Amino acid sequence: MADAKSETQSSNQMWGGRFASGPDAIMEEINASIGFDKKLYAQDIRGSMAHATMLAHQGIISTEDRDKIVGGLQAILKEIEDGTFAFSRKLEDIHMNVEARLAALVGPAAGRLHTARSRNDQVALDFRLWVKEELQKTERMLSALIAAFLDRAEEHADTVMPGFTHLQTAQPVTFGHHCMAYVEMFGRDRQRVRHAIEHLDESPIGAAALAGTGFPIDRHMTANALGFREPTRNSIDTVSDRDFALEFLSIAAIAATHLSRLAEEIVIWSTPQFGFIRLSDAFSTGSSIMPQKKNPDAAELVRAKTGRINGSLVALLTVMKGLPLAYSKDMQEDKEQVFDSAESLELALAAMTGMVRDMTVRADRMKAAAGSGYSTATDLADWLVREAGLPFRDAHHVTGRAVALAEQKGCDLAELPLEDLQAINPAITDKVYGVLTVEASVASRTSFGGTAPANVRQQIAWWRGRN
Ligand code: ARG
């Protein structure tokens, strides 16, 4: 900022025709987006090449000018990728940085590139292309995470663990079934990503400032060249729409929320008190003072990244909520939220995939915990309904008394002698012990979507066909 003043005396070469002097240093600082939108350089250049090619095809510019423009843009792409391109804040953004350099490289032909377009449709195009690629990457990363879970689920289709509600032991489930719950969650995230790609797959270029253009452009041609399904239909909406960014952020927020719940479980499971899993050395850290510690830092950071991503969604919703149609400069604030969230989500997905693949599952600890807390009480109640014809509410009451007695005696339900059970309800026979083990409990849960190992294997096969 300090040396900006001297640079800003002359007016902007792209739009300064009616300006006698350059912007105040603070104006330049608040206005410039090149610091972050340089990330869009490849999309900007690709968009300009498609636009110039279409302009020449339609006879709006000459083929000589097209060749100069396309050649110059190729040279600029190389300069940026080689790190030799000098970005200038005076030129505000990526669009004008590229165009000014093009003028330096190819002369007056460069001035014809901006025919029949505006930075409003240009930025909408660049950003859409970027978000589309990011969504495609997110889709691949979600598939990798799903694959990691499918492998762990297969390995542990029979591993019994306590299922929880209120984080209190509820009923035994299998670890495979628990893994498949995450497959469902990340599978929905992936569906949302696919839908978002479909929603944004329309080309904005050619909407121009907001009203379209009088030049005989072919928007289907540019849409096609840039890999879009079709052009957008309303020029006003096109330059004022940021739904694709909001959809990306909301998808990212929901996926991050799923990742955060998983992170929380990993934190809990890896405590010595639970001991359900051991994290690999690769995804944990030690303490500088307590030699015995192994901390789940990666999981904790995944949990924290969710806060950033959720914040970005709210930030952009808030930016957009008061804007009249069509473009307003407020919309320049869309990019940092999306870039930051994309980076956070990628890191969180990669770290979580690594943790899931690497963690050691302690089946012995899970099994021991699965049987505690009277987790098969519902199985006793169900047995009374099935075998003794009791209404479920009565069976619930009888079972409650059995649990109270076991608690009083300090033993498990399966350890109560038959006389004790019969004193509570004479219809109980020794066949009841067959349903009180955790293995019998999970094996009996064969309803569609239930935790029985056979069902879990079916779910895994179903998902393997879709991953
Ligand atoms: N840097 C701007 C943005 O990101 C580009 C569009 C500028 N349009 C304009 N009319 N000033 O939104």
Labels describing this entry:
467 residues; elongated; Fumarase C, Chain B, domain 1; Ribonucleotide Reductase Protein R1, domain 1; binds arginine; mainly alpha; 6 strands; 19 helices
**SS-derived structural category:** mainly alpha
The poorly predicted ranges are 1-8
Bound molecules: arginine
CATH-assigned homologous superfamily of the largest domain: Fumarase/aspartase (Central domain)
Rg, rounded, reads 31 Å
Shape: elongated
Number of domains: 3
The second-level CATH architecture of the largest domain is Up-down Bundle
List the secondary-structure elements in sequence, H or E.
HHHHHHHEEHEHEHHEHHEHHHHHH
CATH topology of the largest domain: Fumarase C, Chain A, domain 2
What helical percentage do the residues reach?
55-70%
How far apart are the first and last residues' alpha carbons, in Å?
A: 51 Å
As laid out across the biggest beta sheet, the strand order is 1-2
**What is the percentage of strand-forming residues?**
under 5%
Major sheet attributes = 2 strands, antiparallel
Number of helices: 19
Average pLDDT figure: 94
CATH C-level class of the largest domain: Mainly Alpha
Beta strands, count: 6
